[in-house]
Amino acid sequence: MSTADIKKNAQDKMAKSLETLRADLAKVRTGRAHVGILDHVMVDYYGNPTAINQVANLTLIDARTIGVTPFEKKMGTTIEKAIRDADLGLNPSAQGDTIRVPTPPLTEERRKEMVKLCKSEAEDAKIAVRNIRRDANEQLKKLVKDKSISEDDERRASDDVQKLTDKAIADIDKIVAEKEKEVLTV
Predict the structure, then answer these.
(1) Within 13 A of 100's CA, how many CA atoms are on the CB side?
(2) Which of 105, 102, 101 has the alpha carbon at shortest distance from 79?
(3) Is 21 helix (H, G, I), strand (E, B) or coil?
(4) Residue 6 CB coordination number (10 Å)
(5) Which of 44, 89, 101, 179 is the most exposed place for a label (fewest CB within 10 A)?
(6) Are 163 and 171 within 8 A, CB to CB?
(7) Which residues lie closer than 8 Å to 33 by C-beta, 6 or more apart?
(8) 109-143: burial string, b at 16+ Cβ within 10 Å, e else
(9) CA atoms of 183 and 186, how far apart (whole Å)
(10) Which residues fall within 8 angstroms of residue 34, CB to CB, at 6 or more apart?
């Protein structure tokens, strides 16, 4: 394995860590409604737990209301019960074929909890990035030990990995700052 392969591998893994952070933060509730908060809701579909987006169409009715339109009308009450039981603090109500899911405004205390959760997710992502850096540096040291590369090459590659790490950490800080701002905006 060459130094370029190690750097590319580290860069790919860091990019995956950033994507995971974005996905995790997308699930954090803000003051506005978004269909992503229902992503992990599972509905009993003929005895099989099924993701809600597989049995219904999810849309935004307005800034605070999600519309859930079941593909099969008889699934309405089952979907409504699944949303209620999902422990999201949501209270769906059926209106014709559509289930309206109003998202209550967040209290100041709840917003602060959400910010703490965001910071915790960010810290987990930073730890993952640092572990990737450590693994890459260990691979580089192994190449030096095997005499595949010189110590100068190892130093240059290590510096490049550190630059990748610094960029990933800066991106994490930026992503979390944006999410915090979104959460704290009333």
Answers:
(1) 11
(2) 101
(3) helix
(4) 23
(5) 89
(6) no
(7) 60, 62, 63, 64, 65, 66, 101, 102, 103
(8) eebeebbebbeebbeebbebbeebbeebbebbeeb
(9) 8
(10) 26, 60, 66
Amino acid at residue number 126: K
The pLDDT profile of the chain, 186 residues, written as one tens digit per residue, is 788 899 999 999 999 999 999 988 887 777 777 888 888 889 998 889 999 989 999 999 988 899 999 999 888 889 999 998 887 778 899 988 899 999 888 788 888 888 999 999 999 999 999 999 999 999 999 999 988 888 898 999 999 999 999 999 999 999 999 999 988 886
pTM: 0.71
Structure tokens at 41: 């809701």
> Can you list the domains of the chain with their CATH numbers?
3-27+107-184 (1.10.132.20), 35-102 (3.30.1360.40)
